[in-house]
Structure formats: structure tokens, C-alpha cells
Amino acid sequence: MSPSQSLSHKITVLIPCYNEEAGIASVIRSFPRVQLLHHGFELEILVIDNDSCDATAEIALREGAKVVHEPQRGKGNAIRLGFSHISLDTDYVVMLDGDATYRPDEILRLVELLHSRFATVAIGSRLGGRIQVGAMHGVNRIGNWIFSHLIRQLYHVNVTDVLTGYFAWRREAVDRLRPHLTSNGFAIEMEMVTKMARLGEEIYCVPISYYPRRGNSSLRPVQDGVRILWMLMRNLLWNPEGATRPTWQPRPVRGYASNDARPQANPVVMSARLPAGVES
Length: 280
Known about the structure:
It is built from 10 helices and 7 strands. The termini are close together. It has one domain (9-272): Spore Coat Polysaccharide Biosynthesis Protein SpsA, Chain A, CATH 3.90.550.10. It has a 7-stranded mixed sheet, sandwiched between helices. The chain is an alpha/beta fold. The protein is globular and about 45 Å long.
């Protein structure tokens, strides 16, 4: 996009938080606001405080984020509430955790896929990216690899990190998905991916960085792993009858009719096909 392009697209970032006072300020401060403005994006940050016992909400407000409160604990509850508070003028929705494990300055890697109409959903892949020492235990890595392999085989979507916490959607993809979500806890990512696959969304992954978390984790590997596996198997039988499916088409290249051969070299098209890139 041109540096002189007027501000015309809004990104709403959802950050579900439970006792994330150690990392939330760093997360909010790390979004590349100047770079986003340069590319024509307005940013709104919405923190969903999931009944925290610490100063997460106060810190988020002090850092300029909007805060809503979900009294029923569980990541799924927080995410579903966040979806219900997305403003009407939002074009793209991004979600990441508030524990500083993900890099907010990599947001354009995901949004570029949506803005170029290459995808309706972009997923940040830790397994396909750079995992820092101590960020992911071996058991979690193996479990994630197995779940992701099953998703590719059973749901026929090319997802390399099904349990990531870094997602981006076109607004209409959120509107299609939201009515079908029921998960309360950590199975929410698996529910989102499996149901998005059944809804026919164009889902692609981009490599991201992953860092050791700040603060304590509430994830229970065995118990939550069983729930995640059950969600994967249960949704094999899920039929989105009556659901709205994607009807979008890729943005045509200027100067070429839809039935014409595509140009052999076009920097705009090449930019749209490079998931890891953010600038042409």
C-alpha cells in the first residue's frame, strides 16, 4: 500500500487475559502503530479481563486499551465475549494472548493475507516459525504436531499449528463463525479451526515467533488435551446447515480481465502471495 493512502481500514485486536499483569503492558505497547498508519490501518485494542485477581485490567486501561469483563473463567468464554464487542466499523479482527509470548509487531504478516484477499483467515504458526528456547515444552510441541497433523488429514486444511493463540480474520469470517462457538476453555482454538474448515473459509498459516510467557500458565496439558481431542473428533460430524459460507473473490489485477492470463511479473501480485512479507 502507498504511504500516502488515507486511513480507511480498522483492525480490532482482542486480547483475552487471566492474571496477565506481568505481560499485558508490554503487549499493548509493542503494536507497530506507526507502521500500521503508514499502511492505512487504524488500531483498536480490546482486552477481555477473564475475572483476573491482579491488576491486568487497570494496567490495560492505563496503556490505552478498552477493557471488558467476563466473570465466567475460561478462554473460550473470554473470546466469545470479545467477538460480541467488535465495533461495527471493524474490517479485520486479530487475536493474541496477553502473556507476551507472541510478537504484536508481526501483526502485518497476518493482516496482509486478509487485505490482499489471499485468505479469509490467517493463523500464526509457531511450529512453522521461530520458537525461542524455553517457550514450548517438548510434550506440548509433540501434542501440537499430532493435533495439527490430524487436522490436515481429517479436515483437509493446511494448518501447521492448530493450538496457536495468534489469529486474524476478515470481519465477515468472524460473523460467520461466531454463532457456532460454544467452548468455554482452551478447546476454543480447536473449535474455531475445525468449524472454520467446515464453513469453507480460506485458511492459511504464516510463520511467527514464540517466546517464554511472563507469569504463570493456567493450561492443564492432560485435562485440556483430552478436551481438545474430543473437540477435534466431535466436529467431524458437525454440519453447518444453513450457515453463511464465504462468497468473496480474490481482488482482480488492474488492467486484466478475469479470463485473461495473469502477468508473469507483477510486484503487487507477488506481494499478495508472500505470507511472511508485509511490504512490496
